[in-house]
Give the backbone structure.
Amino acid sequence: MPLRRIVLLVNPNSRAVTRPAVEDAAALLARSVDTRLIWTTGPGEATRLAADLGTDPDTLVTAVGGDGTFFEALNGLPPQGVIGLLPAGTANVIARELGIPLQLREAAKTLLTGAVRRFDTGRCNGRRFFMVAGCEFDAHVASSVPALPKKWLGQYAYHLESLCRYPRYDFPALRVEVDGRPAVTGSFALVANLRRYGGGLFFAADARPDDGQLDLVLFRRMTVPYLLKGLWGAWTRRGVGSDVAWRLRGRQFRLQPPRPVRFQLDGEVLPPAAELQICVEPASLAMVTP
């Protein structure tokens, strides 16, 4: 991709970020194109920087960190902006899904040799997401994982926290409408743009980020047999079966819980909402990929 400059927005708190590795990747890029390195200092800064830098279509705004860092940059990127990713997070779902190397130096090379592709994004209650929107239980888990286990165990810290929280959790009854069709009900909902979830689980095995639709996986109930069967399908990459969950595809989703619930977008937990309005925005993201 012909570029005039690359700006690296680095999250120093991402699990796999080290200064030597980041500076090495920046030096490699600087041999071919003007490269600027910015270390963010707190939540929301990547969003503000992407909003400013992304106004120039000749500047590649690159998130250096995990999926959460990408989420922040995505929510600042203007329509004409172009985004890249150097993965250095916990699960690196986006990089794994799009074939971006997990080593920073190799990923940096793809910024120079890759192509700009157009991808769909989702929007939930005004916020954009690229991977998935999850309603309640996974947001509850994500907000509860202590920092040290997350640093030591990576994505497995979330699995462990899920096991601890599940027995005592009161799952709400969720009512979901898809494209105005009759509503379906269940206990736990994912609206996915990508197949992967939390690293190596494929709950929505048929989801694609360039098909103009999002994929709903709504567990009919969260009893142990249903959960184990659903996890087995996700673990074996076949996806969750229709006997365990409602599997619907569409462009507009309305989720109505009986009480305000927390939700997560790309792993970032948002405040409780009385209703979730989700839609797909086809081909709305320009991104450099291998």
The chain has two domains: 5-113, 127-282.
